[in-house]
Amino acid sequence: MTAATATTLPPLADPGPLVRARWAFSDTMAITRRNLLVWYRVPAYLFFTVIQPVIFVLMFRYVFGGAIHVHGVPGGYVNFLMPGILGQTAAFACFGTAIALAQELQKGVIDRLRSMPMARSAVLTGRLTADTLRMTVTILIVVGVGYAVGFRFQNGAGPAILMVLVAILLGLACCVIAAYTGLAIKDEESVQAFGLIWLFPLTFLSSAFVPISSMPGWLQAFANNQPVTFVINTMRALALGGPIAADLWKSAAWLAGIFIVFLPLAVRAYKRAS
Question: How far apart are CA 242 and CA 259, in angstroms?
Fold first, then answer.
């Protein structure tokens, strides 16, 4: 009787950074598709995502618009309003990011995904990609509603497209913050309440809906020096024309800072989530 000879398998070759990047991209697209299927299976989700900014457009345009006067804005208050509504719409999209991650964490979905042979980054990047697509659709619908109530771009097609891209970048930055808070707080109701605490002051105490000069002096100091104001001023200049350089650079600095600070925090919270 002869003993079986053990065979040693050669070590697997390192797939290399390009192959790993391709696998990570494929996994991200799979998670993105999974997250977007909610729209197909629960159409009410998309409806309620869109209806809130539409209500804001109609309410500010027809309820408050007659009482709020802006000077030197071509087209009147509706043209002043719409960049602010679009910025707010983009920022509020992050509620879905935080709530979805907190829900999946509570239900054990993230633990199951982490146990699968897939890129660790795909859960976060897939969520952010899906929410960015959802946000883009919502923003375009709100632009259409704005046109129906009298809004018009005054500065050409190129700046109009760039304005939409700036709004999407603002929304993505807020989604990164929301990803961190959703994974760190881990409770759906607490995450939603915390989102109201930091989002409402940033959006309403800004240049989004009224000229900052109409606010009390002590409040103007905050409103003039916070990121949402810089981004919305940039969007308004792109839509209507006017000086843009100063607000554009300040917006870029704030958004870059948010990504630099909160992306690592979100990744760290994801690694620690259980």
Answer: 28
CA–CA dist 28, 7 (Å, integer):
37
Tell me phi and psi for residue 70, to 5 degrees: -125, 145
Q: Report d(CA 19, CA 22) in Å as an integer.
A: 5
What local confidence, expressed as pLDDT, does residue 1 receive? 45
pLDDT tens, position by position, 32-75: 998 888 777 777 777 778 888 899 999 989 888 777 888 878 88
Residue-wise pLDDT tens digits, 127-165: 999 999 999 999 999 999 999 999 999 988 999 999 999
Q: Is the pLDDT of residue 258 over 80?
A: yes
C-alpha distances in angstroms, 12 versus 6, 201, 203? 18, 54, 52
Supply 131's token pair. Answer: 């929410």
- Cα four-point dihedral sign 109, 112, 117, 119: positive
DSSP 8-state symbol, 213? G
Collapsed DSSP state (helix, strand, coil) of residue 142? helix
Gap between the Cα atoms of 166 and 95, Å rounded: 19
pTM reported for the whole predicted model: 0.88
Across the chain, mean pLDDT equals: 87
Cβ–Cβ under 8 Å, residues 138 and 93: yes
